[in-house]
């Protein structure tokens, strides 16, 4: 039977199941196949905070969304075209996001009376007409998998576990994904259990063959590879990119990396990743608490290391006093905040942009520091290198504001070569800098950067003491002199403000140069904003876009850019934190758009908001 | 090297080419403790003792938290870091873990290390990173002008406890032994000779050494340790702990009790064979712990000296070994190889 092949320019698939069903792995493998095939892609995992919520319940649903296309794309997609629902809970939890006409592939074996009752279905929605606005493909995934594995020496329960691979095989057939990488992956993953490897591969192939032969699927789909700039690509998540960026920063600064960290969702993967790279001389220290994590990092910086601490919002709150110590002792330090929904514990696995004001102002005293925010998962790499550049050059703690969406989302990344990356090396002080030629002044500043010398223990003749008490300008001795304090407060501020001349100007994307409305963003909203802007332009609308990567100091031309437009719209996943700052600083009447749902914006949603602002002109 | 510690504590710290003296370790800063404070004696003892170690001055670092004692680093002409309340062990941990060539000292007090910084203290001890922690115990908050501390005796009348404090104090020695410390000692500010010997042992010990120093605060808790200083009472109360020697004074001795614990009895009532011989290297910490309890509940028998000194790998040694092992197996890391590892594809 020859089946029809239909061409599509893009597809959004969501795999959804119980936390124990292996949906993240399934999504991850589909992503690898898609990346290898050459589509552009963007992913959004969404999982519960509970490690194993009760099976079959709504809180236990875990999902993975993948958007892939034959052109360059910016987001994991608003609404899935295809939902793979491994049980009734997965169907119920995701149905609200499905547009009319979308495909639903449902595992009929799990639609038992008991499972239906668990989520409040009276009868099976597969058997009444409640799903009539969608195209439902009922597939007994579990029993087909068990049947396919009959020849294997496996218990029924073990055989059932491979049902995610059966689903992956079916979807791989449906979208013409290459199979070799998944087979190779399974062989490697289960190298020590070849029987399990073989069973999973058999399930995967059975899924593929099922698609090929069954009449439930009469059409398969092709999405051509995307035209991306030439280079070597890999798929990368934000946390992995950030960890690699820190490794790169260590190599390019020629400073040994010291990570002091305490496990916290969604930042722990950076600790895990860096712990693997001891060959780079990286020391990772799992501390007794958040405060010790940053304390150890600062101690290592004092000793000449690139000190880094990684955490999320609750951890930043605990680290505040030590970050203030880093501000006043003027030592390099990178504080990575993978923001999550707050306040307090909030929703640990959900994303938010609500730590901006804490990053900027959440310390006692006048305590300025640079803040850098990556825009996309792969941009976490460059943002980490940039944070290190500023920390080392200006002897300052730098706050790197990622978030849960960037951390766990992934996209193809053109891999840079080490030679392309900036040299961010610095010099330690080696000789006295006093006018008499013998004294060392630990707070005598570089006239251009206002940075102080970094003299590390082990350097003879430069023995000195630093600390949290106010220091006299130059000598660094304890000083309670009122005028000295005023001077030091202003010097520390001026040092950070001066960085504005060392970062790129705010770039505006305004193709025809005649837009009246500017959409501004920062951090992870880049993708949805840019996708929304495309929609507006495609429909003939005019809108300019600019995205802030440096939140402190702001690029020198920021005020000029904001004042050049009639209206400035600023979507944020908070209640208007950047808008508050920009209004105060530039007296521009920013229009805020705020949603704090623990989820990224949707392109369609933002396109509507932008259109409303344009129409109100 | 003494026979009681492992002597590796300073093995990676470069030695000075020239002979340094006490004056080389005095900074140009004016010392600003209250006249009569016990801290002066400890500072003088440290400044006069460190040259004996023969280390390069630039490879010594003093790290402190907050409190009267935490001003200490400003007065030492070495590298120094006066940090924030309670966090000195954490900051020193990062420094010592990344720089095994440094001799790192933590200067802390009873409030700094046992209240706000209690967590860092116990974790530093169990990790056994190469640090020397000098805990100045004056049983009071001095810098905040006289509130009771976590080592103040129950019923202490202070500004914050006008009817007496309610909470049972920590015994720092018991706490340290319970926290898996590999080196635990107690000494007193007024006995420079003893201070010297204990500090030297602490410095040469590889791993975390904790030295409790009884220190008099003559403003807010004057005379807290007078019994240990008054020639009339001193010998009756103090029990000197010396490795390999019987635990006894002229008038009393320590022996195994009938209940399996230890007890202090008049020396005239025991034969020499019955007296416990002090062994700082005993792997099981129970006996050291029992010795640390002898001053409870009254300040009747106070052991002074090294309670415990056992050889255990230090954290930064093990950390370096892991790095060396990883590099030995796979060679030094290459950034391009790392970025290109895993599934990649080429476009164009």
TrEMBL record, chain A:
Query: Biological process GO terms, please?
Result: response to oxidative stress
Question: Which parts of the sequence belong to the Pyruvate flavodoxin/ferredoxin oxidoreductase pyrimidine binding domain?
Answer: 258-472
- Give its E.C. classification number: 1.2.7.11, 1.2.7.3
The record places domain Pyruvate/ketoisovalerate oxidoreductase catalytic at 20-207
Q: Which SUPFAM superfamilies match?
A: Pyruvate-ferredoxin oxidoreductase, PFOR, domain III, Thiamin diphosphate-binding fold (THDP-binding), TK C-terminal domain-like
Give the domain of life: Bacteria
Keywords annotated in UniProt: Oxidoreductase
Q: Does the keyword Flavoprotein apply?
A: no
Q: Which GO terms describe its molecular function?
A: 2-oxoglutarate synthase activity; magnesium ion binding
Q: What class of enzyme is it?
A: oxidoreductase
Q: What is this protein identified as?
A: 2-oxoglutarate ferredoxin oxidoreductase subunit alpha
Organism equals Streptosporangium saharense
Automatic annotation (TrEMBL), chain B:
Q: Which UniProt keywords apply?
A: Oxidoreductase
Query: What's one GO MF term for it?
Result: magnesium ion binding
Q: Where is the signal peptide?
A: none
* Secreted among keywords: no
Q: Name a single GO biological process.
A: cellular respiration
Q: Which Pfam families match?
A: TPP_enzyme_C
Q: Which organism is it from?
A: Streptosporangium saharense
Question: Which residues does the UniProt record annotate as the domain Thiamine pyrophosphate enzyme TPP-binding?
Answer: 66-213
Q: What is this protein called?
A: 2-oxoglutarate ferredoxin oxidoreductase subunit beta
Q: Does the keyword Oxidoreductase apply?
A: yes
């Amino acid at each position: 039977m020859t089946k029809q092949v239909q061409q599509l320019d893009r597809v959004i698939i969501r795999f959804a199941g119980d936390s124990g069903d292996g949906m993240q792995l399934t999504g991850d493998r589909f992503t690898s196949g898609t990346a290898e095939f050459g589509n552009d892609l963007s992913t959004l995992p969404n999982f519960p905070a509970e490690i194993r919520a009760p099976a079959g319940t709504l809180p236990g649903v875990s999902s993975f969304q993948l958007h892939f296309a034959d052109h360059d794309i910016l987001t994991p997609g608003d609404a899935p075209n295809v939902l793979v629902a491994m049980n009734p809970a997965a169907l119920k939890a995701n149905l609200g996001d499905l547009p009319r006409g979308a495909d639903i592939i449902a595992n009929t074996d799990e639609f038992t009376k008991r499972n239906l009752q668990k989520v409040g279905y009276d009868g099976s929605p597969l058997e009444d007409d409640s799903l009539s606005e969608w195209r439902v493909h009922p597939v007994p995934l579990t029993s087909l998998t068990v049947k396919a594995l009959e020849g294997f020496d496996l218990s029924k329960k073990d055989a059932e576990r491979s049902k995610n691979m059966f689903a992956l095989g079916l979807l791989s057939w449906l979208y013409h994904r290459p199979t070799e990488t998944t087979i190779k992956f399974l062989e490697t993953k289960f190298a020590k259990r070849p029987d399990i490897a073989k069973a999973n591969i058999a399930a995967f192939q059975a899924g593929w063959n099922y698609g090929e032969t069954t009449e439930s699927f009469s059409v398969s789909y092709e999405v051509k590879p995307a035209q991306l700039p030439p280079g070597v690509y890999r798929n990368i998540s934000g946390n992995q990119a950030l960890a690699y960026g820190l490794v790169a920063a260590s190599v390019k600064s020629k400073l040994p990396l010291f990570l002091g960290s305490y496990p916290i969702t969604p930042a722990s993967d950076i600790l895990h990743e860096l712990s693997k790279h001891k060959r780079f001389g990286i020391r990772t220290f799992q501390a007794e608490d958040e405060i010790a994590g940053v304390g150890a990092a600062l101690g290592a910086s004092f000793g000449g290391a690139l000190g880094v601490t990684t955490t999320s919002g609750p951890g930043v709150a605990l680290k505040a006093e030590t970050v203030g110590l880093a501000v006043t002792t003027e030592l390099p330090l990178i504080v990575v905040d993978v923001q999550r929904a707050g306040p307090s514990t909030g929703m640990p696995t959900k994303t938010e942009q609500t730590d901006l004001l804490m990053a900027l102002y959440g310390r006692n005293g006048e305590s300025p520091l640079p803040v850098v925010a990556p825009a996309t998962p792969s941009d976490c790499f460059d943002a980490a290198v940039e944070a290190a550049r500023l920390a080392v050059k200006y002897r300052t703690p730098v706050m790197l504001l990622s978030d849960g969406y960037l951390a766990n989302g992934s996209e193809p990344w053109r891999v840079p070569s080490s030679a392309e990356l900036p040299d961010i090396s610095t010099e330690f002080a080696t000789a006295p800098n006093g006018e008499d030629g013998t004294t060392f002044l630990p707070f005598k500043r570089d006239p251009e950067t206002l940075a102080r010398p970094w003299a590390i223990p082990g350097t003879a003749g430069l023995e000195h003491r630093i600390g949290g008490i106010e220091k006299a300008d130059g000598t660094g001795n304890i000083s309670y002199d009122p005028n000295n304090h005023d001077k030091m407060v202003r010097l520390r501020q001026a040092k950070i403000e001066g960085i504005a001349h060392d970062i790129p100007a705010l770039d505006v994307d305004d193709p025809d140069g005649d837009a009246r409305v500017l959409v501004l963003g920062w951090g992870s909203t880049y993708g949805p904003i840019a996708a929304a802007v495309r929609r507006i332009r495609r429909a003939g609308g005019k809108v300019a876009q600019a995205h802030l990567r440096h939140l402190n100091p702001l690029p020198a031309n920021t005020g000029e850019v904001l004042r050049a437009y009639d209206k400035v719209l600023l979507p944020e996943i908070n209640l208007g934190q950047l808008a508050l700052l920009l209004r105060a600083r530039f007296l521009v009447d920013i229009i805020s758009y705020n949603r704090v749902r623990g989820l990224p914006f949707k392109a369609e949603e933002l396109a509507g908001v932008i259109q409303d602002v344009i129409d109100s002109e | 090297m003494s026979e009681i510690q492992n002597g590796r504590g300073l093995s990676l710290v470069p030695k000075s080419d020239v002979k340094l003296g006490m004056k080389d370790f005095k900074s140009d800063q004016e010392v600003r403790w209250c006249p009569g404070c016990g801290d002066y004696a400890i500072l003088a003892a440290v400044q006069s003792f460190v040259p004996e170690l023969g280390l390069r001055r630039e490879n010594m670092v003093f790290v402190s938290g907050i409190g009267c004692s935490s001003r200490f680093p400003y007065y030492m002409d070495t590298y120094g870091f006066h940090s924030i309340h309670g966090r000195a062990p954490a900051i020193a941990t990062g420094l010592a873990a990344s720089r095994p060539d440094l001799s790192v000292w933590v200067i802390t007090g009873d409030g700094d290390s046992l209240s706000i910084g209690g967590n860092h203290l116990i974790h530093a001890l169990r990790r056994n990173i190469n640090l020397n922690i000098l805990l100045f115990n004056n049983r009071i908050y001095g810098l905040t002008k006289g509130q009771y501390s976590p080592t103040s005796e129950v019923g202490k009348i202070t500004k914050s406890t006008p009817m007496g404090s309610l909470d049972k104090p920590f015994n720092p020695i018991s706490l340290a032994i319970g926290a898996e410390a590999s080196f635990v000692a107690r000494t007193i500010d007024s006995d420079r000779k003893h201070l010297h010997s204990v500090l030297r042992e602490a410095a040469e010990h590889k791993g975390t050494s904790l030295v409790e120093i009884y220190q008099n605060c003559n403003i807010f808790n004057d005379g807290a340790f007078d019994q240990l200083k008054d020639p009339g009472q001193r010998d009756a109360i103090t029990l000197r702990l010396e490795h390999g020697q019987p635990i006894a004074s002229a008038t009393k001795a320590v022996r195994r009790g009938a209940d399996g614990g230890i007890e202090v009895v008049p020396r005239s009532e025991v034969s020499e064979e019955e007296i416990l011989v002090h062994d700082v290297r005993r792997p099981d910490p129970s006996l050291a712990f029992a010795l640390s309890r002898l001053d409870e509940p009254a300040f009747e028998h106070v052991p002074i000296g090294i309670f415990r000194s056992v050889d255990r790998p230090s954290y930064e040694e093990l950390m370096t070994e892991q790095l060396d092992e990883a590099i030995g197996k796979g060679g030094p890391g290459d950034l391009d190889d790392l970025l290109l590892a895993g599934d990649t594809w080429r476009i164009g």
